[in-house]
Amino acid sequence: MIRFGRVIASGDRLFGSELGRLGGDYVVLGRYEDDDWVRPATPATDGTRLVEVATDRDDLSEPNRWEVVGTVVVDAGWRYESFPATVRTSYPCYPTGGDFTVRAQLEMENLLEWDSVGLPADYAVDGLVLFYGCCFAIGIGYARFWEGPIARYVRIRFAYANGVLQTVQLPANEAVVQIARAGGVLNLEGLIQQEYRLPERMGVMRVRFLSSDFGMAVPCAFCTDGVCAGRMACGDPPNCDDPTQCGGDGGGTYPPERTLVWRCRWITATGSYTVRVPEGVLGWVARGVPVVQGEVLVHEDVLDRLELAEPMHRDAYVLNRYMAWHTGAGALTEHSSGVRRDAEVAPADDNERLRTMGTRIER
Length: 363
Known about the structure:
- The chain has no helices and 31 strands.
- It is mostly beta strands.
- The strands form 8 sheets. The protein has a 7-stranded antiparallel beta sheet with strand order 5-8-17-10-11-12-13, with no helix packed on it.
- It starts with a strand and ends in a 9-residue tail after the last strand.
């Protein structure tokens, strides 16, 4: 038997050393020098994990999956306790450039009343967004502005992409937002659609910006980190570490921001990868259930370890309660207490011919 994802014996290999076996939207992440795992290159999460500690090998932990800026804690999802605050994948998502759908439940807890008035041309926004790279995001939040001497706070759902901002009023304090790609076109719930195929990091972050930040004569991008984290940086090129390029946050020109509890409950995402296993699968350590299709294993979740039968001829014999078979290196023997037939192990008789070598045994 040989293993992928965990080196225990001679011949075992890490997933990262066998990339020719992997295909689709995948990423290989390391846990220890002798232990790694493969997962879909997506931002999917149930919100119960964030920065994990590498503990036992083959324990399905993912210590190197997320990067966190600011203070974010696990509390019925991810609760954003500071500004700036960002959680993003440590890897680019959807490297094949194909179709996908990512959805996130975002919410802002607030007991105060909201206004139901139209937005002026000039307002400040505080929000929480699901983002794809620097330049595509959709989220929820509120606009704040003065209407004469009256401070107005209006809930909004908004999307931005490459300097374009679109907003609609939000009827509740929470919403499920979505970024999808079909035929190379990114779709932010119909508010914005632009062609874009490159892989990007994905995640959820707190943002603050002004409506006047959009439509600038120079390129602008939202910053996930740096001194401009959570704001736009506008320059040629944008530089998130240059304080002179940081966009506005409202200052004293707009009503003060409200104190809210911002939370991402969960993220769902399409995406799968394949592992070529022509020798036949014996077992696996995984979250979720891999599906074997011929010589390919298809999986949509974490695969910690894969166990494969070594290449062999289909015919083998039991000799004095030892199994013997032929490989390219010659005859090999291994002690056996019996022969597996379906779910049962029957006693092995001398010279019994085995016709089930290579049969998959699921764990």
